[in-house]
Amino acid sequence: MKRSKRIIALLVSVLLIVALLITGCNSINSDNSTVGKTDTESEPSASNPNVPITITCMFSDHPSQPYQEETWILPKVIEEKFNITMKMQAIPSSAFGE
Predict the structure, then answer these.
(1) Which of 7, 24, 43, 93 is deepest in the core (most CB within 10 A)?
(2) Residue 35 and residue 19: Cα distance in Å, rounded?
(3) Is-contact 65 93, C-beta < 8 A?
(4) Residue 19 near residue 13 (C-beta atoms within 8 A)
(5) Each residue's pLDDT tens digit, 44-92
(6) DSSP label at 1?
């Protein structure tokens, strides 16, 4: 019984983190255009839902646990399942406040 509660809590935590990454890493300008979008990119719409989406996420990188792209599974899974590419930007923890 205890183990199933732990598994459920872990799954809920992972889903919450994914939701926060998807909503928190997508930035929009005040003129409602996506940051970093070029003129050749088209936006996903109801008529064309297969257009890939790119999200840039910045996070604090610590020297004791440096960012290694091959160990991060979440961006790969999100790209496979939802056609969303996550560009991860590791910023040193000492300069993250700037």
Answers:
(1) 93
(2) 20
(3) no
(4) no
(5) 555 566 778 888 888 888 888 787 888 888 888 888 888 889 888 888 8
(6) -
What ranges do the domains of the chain cover?
A: 2-92
Helix or strand (DSSP H, E) at 3? helix 2-24
On whether the pTM is more than 0.85, the answer is no
Distance CA 3, CA 65 (A): 29
Instruction: Indicate the burial class of 55 (C-beta count within 10 angstroms; 0-12, 13-18, 19 or more).
Output: buried
Please report which confidence band the pLDDT of residue 29 belongs to, taking 50, 70 and 90 as the band edges.
very low
Residue found under tokens 């560009």 = 87
Reduce the DSSP state of residue 29 to 3 states and report it: coil
- How would residue 42 be classed by pLDDT, with cut points 50, 70 and 90? low
CB contact at 8 A, 72 and 64: no
